[in-house]
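Fold it.
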Amino acid sequence: MLCAQLNVFILGSLEGTTGSPARQYTLAQVGSSQPLKIPRIIHHTFHNRKVLTQEQKAIMATWAQMNPNWKVVNHDDADCLRLVENNYPSYLQLFNSFPKNVERADFFRYLVLYHYGGVYVDIDVECVVPLDQWLGSDVRLVVGVENEFSDIGTAMIRSYPRRRQYQQWAIMSSKGHPLFDLVLRRIEQHFQSETAAKIGSVKLDLSNRATLERTGPALWTDVVSSYLDVTLRNWESKNNSLYPGSNTYSTPFADEVWILPRVSTAAFPNGADFVDPRNNRVMLMHHFLGGWKAKHLSSGLKTQPLDRLYLSKEVTQSSAHGFPVTALLFSNAATGEQDYAGLKSVTVFASPMKVPVGFNGLEEGATLSTWGTWQGSMAPGDPQGLSILHTSYRKSIEEVGLETMRFVEIGSATGLRALEAAKLGVRALSIASRSTDASRIEFSSKLCGVEKFVSVVDATSDFDDAVRLLGQFTRPEVSERKTAVHFEGRLGVELLEASVFMDTDAVDFFTGIIFFETSPELVSRLLSGMLQKKYKVFHAGNICRQLTPRKRRIMFEFLYAKIFKPLLWRSYTGPSLSVRKHSLFREPWCEVGSSDEHALEFSNAYFSDASTSGQEEISDGEAFVFLSDKAKMFFDEKRKIFLGT
């Protein structure tokens, strides 16, 4: 048996590429005997071995190096044809009729996963984190969001056929998953319709866009969306008639189907779209070395009728509640460690992006789809943000028993943090500001299998009752009982301000996101109340960024910050420069003064009670943390560990 201390390294910076940072794992970490629903097989496909470049070979090698307990199978063109001939002869004519090799490669990736199951990855996809360190034991399907845009025009300019699109360079599934039967049938139907529509000697459309629609990510996105729509409706009705056998409901949907945010499988190696490839939520990296796209318009495209030309399209929401997104629970980020080992997960619903670069903290839904988390105007991809306070706090009391803890979430549109707490066995209360939000959170709790741990209340129906329930839920029934609270928006501020009788001795800390249109008087009353109850009041985000001086700044940094970066922001984000983000653990915390005068001065300076007309979809706001003395000592220690000081 190999020594458990043998180290396995990722090729983090391949020659000629912009790779992810090198990460180091022991063999004990990458090897796992935990049974998986997804077979431990990794599939690659390529024309033949002779055409592979050294760079492609190095990238492919990361999968074997990082996953020693997995079988890696390389399929060349002859292998692909043999699979079809021997096992799916009804598809042989279709397979041979595709006008491009890349279309046969697309078809094969769906077929090989349907036949064998496992992990399919393109040859220019690098493994960043060992699969056994993050794949859940009950997962049967893993799909990743590729990108999302605020309008069809932007998607067209960027050459994306769908405004919200799923990538297909890395797909994972159990053997015989019904999604792939649907994909194969859809391709067959699409191709038959396309060939039947040919007029005379007009050739098949050979354009790049036609390939995307015929077998590529456009068709893949449509089928995935349709599958999720039907599957989620099955879950609501607990009726398996549409896709029989696809789910027995004995395992929560959130544990079986992962729709990963863009950071996990689709971050650009050069950090485009503000998604840092060095983020610790990046599981794999696509290096975009493929060269299948034609460099010119084909004669087929030139001869197509005008109504056959493709435009970018909308994607139907997979549920009335929005697009499902999987949020993975990273439980030990406070010390800079990756505590993967089969991550737990929750399913939340994201609304479509409505403003440019909404994923950068301007919109909760778009931010969730890109980062799998949400923390207002703080750095959206920073794992050392608001989530760290709650996850590390829960970790700290596991020895006492999570049954001694309560968690309250107020004003959230998705219930993300309440669901995360419930998934870890913590009793949670989610108070929603709209009936649609309450319905969405209730459905998510069923998909996550935690409906017995989460109580959902609609504050719009009875505000006074919500105040009463909040007081009851946070009042300690035993001396050890402790509570954490997260609040968002005007409802969160109003509810906490009205709950002056709440037993705050049971609340170690509060986190909150206060939007800038909130009344400064209301904010001032809340801050003053917290200061009177001896909480330390900190904030992080746009305001904090402006108030935090740089101790060292060379001329290049000055020019970049004052000239080049504002120009870049202006061209991408317009007037709301949400890219000015703050990190709780990497930078100093801004503290609101300890008097009512300080609270009033701060509130009047930064909150305006301005009309939100035309800006309803922008949910950027300042993040606040209210810490008791005990909680501050705890998090100060965690911060020292993380920074190594």
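The domain at 382-643 is CATH 3.40.50.150 (Rossmann fold).
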